[in-house]
Design goal:
Number of helices of chain B: 1
CATH topology of chain B: Immunoglobulin-like
Number of helices of chain A: 12
Strand content of chain A: 15-25%
Strand content of chain B: over 45%
Shape of chain A: elongated
Order of helices and strands of chain B: HEEEEEEEEEEEE
Number of domains of chain B: 1
Helix content of chain B: under 10%
Largest sheet of chain A: 5 strands, antiparallel
CATH superfamily of chain B: Uncharacterised protein YcnI-like PF07987, DUF1775
Number of strands of chain B: 12
Number of strands of chain A: 17
Structural class of chain B: mainly beta
CATH architecture of chain B: Sandwich
Distance between the termini of chain A: 43 Å
Radius of gyration of chain B: 18 Å
Order of helices and strands of chain A: HEEEEEEEEHHHHHHHHHHHEEEEEEEEE
Structural class of chain A: alpha+beta
Largest sheet of chain B: 5 strands, antiparallel
Oligomer: heterodimer
Chain lengths: 550, 175
């Protein structure tokens, strides 16, 4: 073999270099730079007929290059190693010969003379602005469903482990029945722990998009683990580990307390992320969600221990079933009420439910829950009393019924895992409310964000809301909801996970309290960070932040 | 070690050697509470290459008895207004005073450096460690750079793109 392998573009190397430079950069931080781009070829937002040979960025002072990238329409870095050079007259990025049509996003990270890092981005398009209709080969759907599968495994593990702990506490089995509950809880904790790592990576992959080999990039994992959902998953992992440890040491004193702590930790993580907590004020949504998740775990997690309980001698089995039955009634009531409350916060109106993906998943979930409640009622009112009376065929019938319940629970958890990957109607409704008196055409799939700054609310909508060129409408209100007139508004967009430094776009006024930016090009999918910068008065500038997931 | 890295290291070294050239800052960044303070605003560059044609500074609450120093070639205007609360200065109660100073009419090319000076009395009741911010608008023809960003809680002024010039109060000098 004579050919040398191409220089590997391991992001790890970049990290290392950044980590080494960081203290230096921080020491130099007193000095703030004002190296700014004075000219760029092609210009920001340019639509070109033929591919340029290079991108040239001129600055008002000499700069040193840290890193540059040119993301092509498929979201891959089009720059060859060494293709970015800092020369006296500016930054030169040599582009490869054959560039396909579509939108390119150029990002640069440089240091100016005084050592302060400066970064920025610009976009240009060849032939047409891509995104939207242009197929982006990121396999978003594949990411989504593998992610849902991993999340389902995590949920099953959580329900089994936390539910097992709750069952041991509330139904109080003794002897071999108690042992078998601990075994199930331990096995469930192991299943959940196995799902943790794939869940994090796949979540990162979903944020990034792109092909499956994205998983080899540490940045994918970092993005997954550092997201809000990542915190929930890590909390769950810590809780599961405690439960697993308690299950192993079940004969020692203190195991029960350890398991309870684990269950609390695992459940507590749920209030850290997700649609449900962010739907309304957290002091309402957090307790509702905890009740919902806790009761669900108790009920669903008790099913397998109950199936095993049926193999115990008749009197013991009857006693366990009876105790569970008594405890389950308030738990199920709480579960359903809290669930309906949370759903109400998301949905608000029943009519548009089937029209959205979220609504359809929710209806399926409600249907399955209805079936589950039916089975539960049958067990409580008919089969359990029959067991207590000692009817011969009752254990078998009850076992079948509980197994059916467990299957329904698995299906419900699967739908719940999928629900988390859809856009809830409240977000879409905020959109309509924004669009109603607004100047721009309400596209059905426009993306809407709400931000809150000191002294103002902002609604930002992206139409059509996908990749490619978007029109951004910004509506500002004061805290009483009246339109807020301000002298100046600008939006900064960056996509740190894809290395895209802030693109700054000034807005132009478009009616009282309304601002508009045309032709905002989002070249790659992933999580975009938005900074809405509002000049409230000459000396008062406020910034509000939000995130747009594409 | 590539040339790129060496260049970068060089740039960083320069960065260490030449602190705070680029922002508009106050020359003296610490002063005792209750003292008379000579504020020198240092302007090291224009707005993205354009010459500076005006400087406006807002006086924070508690800073009183403000007097700008005349500056040849520049016209000074002050805006007076009520203080947030009446203050005692040498036995007198003051309820209003200068809240904003504007220097206009001159032209300071991007390549040159200049200073804009005023005097003020710092709050008597100031706590050591308390920060006072003097937001500045730098006007360059029809563009404006706003040195008005204040650090949010837990944020350092170094994280801001256009920080307001700031002054930290130290313990009052006792006689």
């Amino acid at each position: 073999m004579t050919a040398k392998a191409p220089h590997p573009r391991l992001p790890l190397g970049r990290w290392l270099r950044a980590a080494l430079l960081l203290p230096l950069l921080m020491a130099a931080g007193v000095a703030q730079a004002h190296a700014v781009v004075t000219a760029a070829e092609p210009g920001d937002g340019a639509l070109l007929a033929s591919p340029p040979a290079e991108v040239v960025l001129r600055f008002n002072e000499p700069v040193a290059l840290i890193h540059a990238q040119v993301l092509d329409p498929d979201g891959r870095d089009a720059l060859a190693p060494g293709a970015a050079q800092s020369r006296e007259d500016g930054l030169h990025l040599s582009l490869p010969d054959r560039l396909g049509p579509g939108t390119y996003t150029v990002s640069y990270h440089v240091t100016s003379l005084d050592g302060h890092p400066v970064e920025g981005s610009l976009v240009f398009s060849l032939g047409h602005v891509s995104g939207g209709a242009h197929p982006v080969a990121d396999g978003a759907q594949a990411w989504r469903w593998t992610f849902v599968a991993a999340r389902l495994a995590l949920y099953l593990g959580l329900v089994g482990a936390v539910g097992g702990v709750a069952y041991a506490r509330l139904v109080r089995p003794t002897g071999p029945a108690r042992d078998s509950v601990w075994q199930l809880a331990g096995a469930s904790a192991a299943l959940g722990l196995c799902a943790v790592v794939p869940t994090l990576g796949l979540h990162g992959g979903r944020l990034f998009g792109g092909p499956a080999r994205q998983l080899l990039d540490p940045a994918t994992w970092e993005a997954g683990a550092l997201s809000a959902f990542g915190c929930t998953v890590l909390c769950a992992a810590a809780g599961l580990a405690l439960i697993g440890a308690a299950a192993r040491a079940r004969r020692r004193p203190g195991a029960g307390i350890l398991a309870l702590m684990g269950a609390g930790l695992a459940l507590g993580g749920f209030v850290l992320s997700g649609h449900a907590v962010t739907a309304g004020p957290r002091w309402i949504t957090s307790p509702l969600l905890l009740l919902h998740v806790g009761a669900a775990a108790f009920w669903a997690g008790s099913l397998l221990p109950l199936v095993r309980a049926l193999t115990r001698p008749a009197r013991e089995a009857a006693l366990l079933l009876q105790t569970f039955s008594r405890r389950a009634v308030p738990a199920v009531a709480l579960l359903v009420l809290a669930g309906l409350g949370l759903a109400w916060l998301q949905v608000r109106h029943l009519a548009p439910l089937p029209a959205t993906e979220y609504g359809r998943f929710l209806l399926v979930k409600l249907g399955l829950v209805g079936g589950l409640l039916g089975l539960a009622a049958l067990n409580r009112l008919r089969l359990t009393p029959a067991l207590i009376r000692g009817e011969a065929r009752s254990p078998r019938r009850l076992r079948r019924s509980i197994q059916a319940e467990a299957a329904l629970v698995a299906a419900i958890l699967a739908v719940t895992a999928a629900l988390g990957t859809t856009v809830p109607p409240r977000a879409l409704m905020a959109a309509e409310a924004l669009a109603a008196p607004g100047p721009h055409d309400p596209a059905v799939d426009a993306r809407h964000l709400h931000v809150m700054g000191t002294g103002f609310h902002g609604d930002i909508s992206f139409a059509p809301g996908g990749l490619g060129a978007n029109t951004v409408a910004i509506r500002l209100r004061d805290l009483d909801g009246r339109p807020l007139q301000v002298p100046q508004v600008a939006l900064r967009l960056s996509n740190p996970s894809r290395g895209i430094a802030p693109l700054e776009r000034p807005a132009r006024p478009d009616g009282p309290g309304v601002w508009r930016i045309d032709g905002v090009t989002l070249g790659v999918p992933g999580a975009w960070d938005l900074e809405l910068e509002v000049l409230v008065s000459d000396f008062d500038r406020q910034t509000a932040r939000a995130r747009l997931d594409l | 070690m590539t040339i790129k890295t060496l260049t970068l290291a060089g740039a960083l070294f320069l960065g260490l050697a030449l602190p705070a050239l680029a922002h508009i800052t106050l020359e003296t960044s610490e002063a005792p509470a209750g003292s008379t303070y000579k504020a020198v605003l240092r302007v090291g560059h224009g707005c993205e290459g354009k010459a500076t044609t005006g400087i406006r500074v807002q006086i924070p609450d508690g800073v009183i008895a403000v007097k700008p120093m005349p500056k040849p070639g520049w016209t000074i205007e002050t805006t007076t207004g009520a203080y947030a609360e009446p203050v005692q200065l040498w036995g007198e109660t003051l309820t209003e005073g200068v809240r904003e100073i504007t220097w206009r009419g001159g032209e300071l090319p991007d390549a040159w450096y200049d200073e804009f000076v005023f005097r003020a009395h710092l709050p008597d009741g100031g706590v050591p460690g308390q920060m006072l911010y003097f937001p500045v608008l730098q006007e360059c023809g029809d563009t404006v750079t706003r040195w008005i960003d204040l650090p949010a809680e837990g944020q350092s002024a170094e994280d801001l793109e256009e920080p307001a010039p700031s002054l930290m109060l130290t313990a009052p000098v006792t006689q």
